[in-house]
Amino acid sequence: MQEGLLAAIADGSFDALFYEYFAATIAQADLKNRRIIELTNPLLPRSAPIHQAQFWLDKNSLTK
Known about the structure:
The chain is an all-alpha fold. The chain has helices at 2-11, 13-29.
């Protein structure tokens, strides 16, 4: 399962599917103009991929 997800991220098909379903909601949320408040989470496991950018939505990459 993880291999399939990583392959979909690598070939762009994950982003295509993600934006097909969520682009309108993301645009409506106006994320580029939101303030980011960073919080620490002591319960987050060390194995969480927080430094792997391909797993997170980057508000700076949004076009709207």
